[in-house]
Write a structure and sequence with these properties.
It comes from Salvia divinorum. It is found in: Cell membrane; Cytoplasm, Cytosol. Belongs to the Hyccin family. Helix 9 runs parallel beside helix 12 and helix 12 packs antiparallel against helix 13. This protein has a domain of 97 residues. It is mainly alpha-helical and 322 residues long. A hairpin with a 6-residue loop joins strand 1 and strand 2.
């Protein structure tokens, strides 16, 4: 076992001086143990502390309970300070632990922010993730090149180069726009900041436990305002611009069609897509209507036992059609 990490700070708040990956994980375990009411003893002696934190059900339950408390997200929220410090450890495994709780944190935050409640604790964590992504992308937009018949295929020879004009330029689609540094969260920036955090979540989603994805599905139903099982759905409805809707739908798509099928997750994601589709129709949002309806239809086809028919195959028949 290595030596305990040093801590320093002012004003009574400790700040961890991160070292090697094992020391970082052990420091995160020790600091979290001081916050939770009950801490599983085996985590203190784990040889892979970050991975153990990620998958421990007792830790997940207690952190979820703390994040849902009425006073969570305040400026003196110790759990938010732990999430902030842990993400700034720059250790990918510990950052994954923070991302594991992002759907719940973002869900509580967006629901309460719609009521104009100050939530600096939540915002500090979201800004830390946003700043990380801004630096990683260099502020540049994420684009993809769309095939264009004006350009030759890479699999064929091009004997005469196409004329250079505006119509023959590469057709680039912007997946996510460029990012600018932000030190505060304003109402106009909120969807973009949360959306960027969810994009990072999606990029690591295959490593995140199912319980975290179920949290997102539950909040999608609440945010849509069209959840028949919740009488207070209207009060919880939030604004869903495309910069927030897009990463949410990508996550729901993973939940529906992930390689390792999970029945509970599939059903939760399917219900969430139906609610989001109803919301898109209510808002007359054509882009969201197309995306959500496509997910719903694909999920219905996946549930259909006869959906494995290959319609590109010619039918075998003894009749000749003239």
């Amino acid at each position: 076992m290595g030596d305990s990490p040093e801590k320093s700070g002012s004003g009574g708040k400790s700040r961890i001086k991160w070292g090697d990956p094992f020391t970082k994980g052990r420091a995160a375990v020790e600091s979290l143990a001081a916050i939770l009411r009950y801490f599983p003893p085996h985590l203190s002696s784990s040889e892979t502390p970050a991975t153990s934190l990620l998958h421990d059900p007792d830790v997940a339950t207690q952190i979820s309970t703390l994040l849902r408390r009425p006073d969570s997200g305040a400026v003196n929220d110790n759990l938010c300070a732990w999430l902030y410090d842990t993400f700034h450890s720059a250790d990918p495994h510990l950052q994954l632990v923070v991302l594991r709780f992002l759907p719940l944190l973002a869900g509580v935050y967006l629901t309460r922010a719609a009521l104009n409640k100050p939530l600096p604790g939540f915002e500090s964590v979201l800004l830390a993730i946003y700043a990380h992504e801004t630096a990683a992308r260099g502020g540049a937009a994420t684009t993809v090149s769309i095939p264009d018949l004006a350009h030759p295929s890479v699999y064929h020879e091009n004997k005469s180069p196409p004329a250079k004009n505006a119509s023959s330029d590469l057709n680039l689609a912007v997946i996510t726009p460029g990012l600018e540094p932000h030190g505060t969260v304003r109402s106009t920036r909120r969807p973009k900041i949360v959306g960027v955090a969810l994009e990072l979540y999606y990029s690591r989603i295959s490593l995140i436990p199912v319980g975290s994805k179920l949290d997102l599905c539950d909040f999608c139903r609440v945010w849509s305002g069209h959840d028949a099982e919740r009488a207070d759905g209207r009060r919880s409805r939030i604004s869903l611009p495309w910069e927030l809707m897009q990463p949410i739908l990508r996550i729901l798509g993973h939940c529906l069609f992930r390689p390792a099928k999970n029945y509970d997750l599939f059903q939760a994601a399917f219900a969430a897509c139906q609610c989001m589709n109803a919301r898109a129709q209510h808002d007359m949002n054509a882009k969201a209507m197309l995306a959500t309806a496509s997910l719903v239809r694909l999920a219905q086809m996946d549930m259909d036992p006869h959906s494995d028919v290959d319609h590109t195959e010619l039918p075998i028949t003894n009749e000749i059609s003239v």
